[in-house]
Write a structure and sequence with these properties.
With about 100 residues, the chain is α/β, with parallel strands linked by helices. The chain has one domain. It has 3 helices and 7 strands, in the order H-H-E-H-E-E-E-E-E-E. A 4-stranded mixed β-sheet has the order 1-6-5-4. A 3-stranded mixed β-sheet has the order 3-2-7, with no helix packed on it. A hairpin with a 6-residue loop joins strand 2 and strand 3.
Length: about 100
């Protein structure tokens, strides 16, 4: 059983223990779920942080035109990951996720 788990971990990167601990603390304090919806896509350049070209430069996580998050309130860097806090949830993404201006 553990050999199967190890081979899956080698194939799929997972967030670090430190990042998961920080996310857990924030989730408990802010009563928000931790989501990994954008995790894999953040490594494959299939997701990005969009910055709206407005006065307040609102940021959102985006997969495509139909899939995006509520506005981002905070971004924390932990190791090789970002904890992205939105109005409703906590997302864990790679710190290599691109950031682009959107309209």
């Amino acid at each position: 059983m553990s050999a199967n788990v190890e081979s899956v971990q080698e194939e799929q990167q997972i967030p670090s223990e430190k990042t998961l601990q920080h996310a857990s603390k924030i989730a408990i304090l802010e009563d928000k779920p931790i989501l990994l919806d954008y995790w894999t896509d953040s490594f494959n350049n299939q997701a990005l942080i969009g910055v709206k070209q407005t006065e307040d430069q609102e940021k959102i996580l985006i997969k495509n035109e139909e899939e995006y998050t509520s506005p981002i309130s905070k971004i924390f860097k932990t190791g090789n990951e970002f904890l992205v806090i939105t109005e409703n949830s906590i997302y864990i993404v790679s710190n290599t996720i691109p950031m682009k201006k959107i309209s």
